Amino acid sequence: MLILGIESSCDETAAAVVESGRFIRSNVIASQNDLHAEFRGVVPELASRAHAERILPVVRAALHDARATLGDLNAIAVGNRPGLIGSLLVGVAAAKALSWSLDKPLVAVDHVHAHLYSGLLRSTSVHDAGPSEQGFFDDFPALGLVVSGGHTALYRLDSPTTLRRLGGTIDDALGEAFDKAATILGLPYPGGPNLDRLAQTAGANPRAHDFPISRLSPDSLDFSFSGLKTSLLYRVRGLPAPGGVFARDHTSLADGEQADLAASFQHAAVQAVVLKIERALDRWPASEPPPRSLLIGGGVSANSRLRAELARIAAARRLRLVLPAPALCVDNAAMIAGLAFHLHAAGLTADLHLQAMPTTAC
Amino acid sequence: MTTIVRHSRTEDETHRLAGDLARVLKPGDAVLIDGELGAGKTTLIRSIVAALGHDASAVSSPTFVLAHEYRAPGRPTVAHIDAYRMHGTEDAGVLGLESDAPRIILVEWASRLGLATDSLHSSTARVRMEHAGETSRTVHLDVPNTWLARPALARLGGPTWAVCPITSRAVPPDCPTFPFADERARLADLHGWFTGSYRVSRPLRPDDD
Hints:
Chain A is an alpha/beta fold. Chain A contains 11 helices and 10 strands.
């Protein structure tokens, strides 16, 4: 079973061919970073134009790398939500055209759901796989965590295709909080990875500053990072004078202070996530099959402190920790094609009326 | 433009301010919000969206995904746009700011779009949020004069409506004959003065000027 996946939700145009829902035959990503760099941000009308220019070469490259032809494909999958409408439309239109002209089923995939699947993909060939790589259901039920620039949410998954949202951020996503903290500390682009690096420098003390760890109400599984961001702002710039004027900025920080602030911020942000994961595991209904794994997805799963804490929880609770390979943490089409295998098997296919949607259904 | 300045000492007060603003909003309106990191833009929007009858837990910052949309049966559709990562788009149409689609548009970091004021339609308000202390914020609202005809603006702190003393009808603050309902009511009132039917209700005292 070969599925072509297409992803164009934000500023990466991607296509991939995945075999049997697990083995990546090809995974092509054309980033628009260079295009948007000169504007220091995403320009929506440029993004959709760039997707339109790149989609066919990217699909061709994915087929070439997979040594497959259009005729070999069994289904076409596309991420149709959430994202920028103008960008999503390009991928959705390409997938519909391929599905219609090849007379192959069309599968619509939610991008957020697909991130949770990315850790289950393998870059090995189906022929080299051991017997343990064949079963899909050994990891379920699972507790899922998506942490990226745009999303931070916890899910319960009873199978690859059935998930229930347990909680999510009520303000900033974790990746966004890291990026904005990096801006407050005056760190260069890319903010999140630079903050992580600074927090790891020798001598950086994660307990130097006592930042608030958001708990929300006692049984909440939601996240909030904006209070943490604001307290970092006040720690760096002082309290504002009337008129919203601050006396200092990051240039007044003493040596070592920047690293202490980065480490303390990262500590508080990661502890907030740890707290909610522990809470979700503690509240898992005793009458139901216990969770077997932690499924992690999204760009912030590359953060060193988060990875260390997740490994600690998994070991203490005897759960399998499923982390995506670095190339699969970012937006990609392999996760779309992989999850589509299960949606297709469950009969969850789409037709040519499929629409691009700005919001997630998960 | 009419400027309203509100001071809010706590997050609860900001929540109430958002409720007052939500009562004024109608589909087709846009609110462009600016303010420093941590000024409370997303929090303000969450309260507005909740006051419009949507699920507040669906609201989060769209900095990375650029836009969220909130829909619910019988409620006005709300587009929540974040321009933090956008840069100088010349085309307001891309964001739907010019569209006649029946939705309410709320934009964070709006000044990064560099939209010229004259490119905005007549139902666009600007909000500027300032840090004034640890939890207190000063909120400057520039509302278009087309909103003066909306009674709910008074709760937000805008110019208040009057009851016409002649016709007993409610009169919006931008009515040319304010506080009278129309020209006939204004002349009827003037006639009252000319004919001596209005008089001071107590004798004059020496300290009356």
